[in-house]
Amino acid sequence: MRIGLLGHGVVGRGVTDILDSRTDGLAEVAKILVKDLGESEDSRHTVHAEEIVGDPSIDLVVECMGGLEPAHSLVRAALASGKSVVTSNKKMFASYQKELRGLAAAERKELRCEACVGGGIPWIHELSRTRRIDSISSFRGILNGTTNQILYGMAASGAGFGEMLREAQRLGYAEQDPSDDIDGMDVRYKVCISIAEAFDLLIDPAGIPAFGIRHITAGEISWAAAHGRTVKLIGRACMQDGRLSALVMPMMLKDEDPFSRVPLNFNEIELAGTTLGTAAFYGQGAGSLPTAHAVVQDILDIASGIAAGPRRMQEGTVDLSGSEGIYYVRTAHPELYAGMKTEEAMPGAFLTERVSCREMAERAGQDDSCFLAEVEE
Q1: 353 in a domain, yes or no?
Q2: Annotated catalytic, 90?
Q3: For residues 109-117, average pLDDT
């Protein structure tokens, strides 16, 4: 099978390294789209995307570019020209999955996204395997290695958020603009894709409330520790009585919760199934070779004729009306939370009574400087 690779950054280079050395010729990289030929000595490099998406000899396009455009247009063009596609681009795929899944089905081509969620963890694969037998009722996960690295470092050292963010950037875990990570957007995209795989529902990512860790302080970490808890950024979704709830939010997890012990930049994701019960998957959620490993697994499945099979997906919406929780809120605008406060946690911060998740999300959505975390009961 001849592969056209769109993008040759951290993940794309990992894909090339693995395919060039470890797959026994089952799949070969024929063309690689790069930004600039520079001093490249690889004859496969090109700066013209049409040499990949328009080449009839290329069977499969692998998209590792990141961002919305031109990645979306090129994936759409590849599918429309009769090529299967593998992508590692969670932002693009979550934003356009309805269109792209529909096009792949119409063209009877494969569209795979294992690397979009959990990096090297075979999360999408395990969701698919579990659903052959079980209905999945819920999933939750630490889905972003950057924020876990920051939170772990704050807890271990007592340092503030800014210092640990700079350290994560120095280590290469955080981008120069870390907004998608620290504001919960990256986890939102991954939850969106996981909902499609777990529940056959296509959700607008913007419909999933997302609260990040941008405004966390060492005070929150200390307060949580003093109360036997650890702060983690959690993405989750639950299907109950035909109603889908989904949320991205920091949680103050009890120390006995296994997620509280996930270190450094590692990810852990957990599902609940009818006969399987609870199963958890742990590993590297990002990085060149772990993520490329997931991409190549998808490539090899397609090259070996292992089809994902037809899926009947419907559009859906998130409904938090049946969800409740107790929340830690630190805000300069306590008036937004009138009637919710039960006790002061520390100056400027309070705990709520057990309140509607939907109402809390609506109020906190108006408060652009708050730190909000659900307190595990």
Answers
A1: no
A2: no
A3: 97
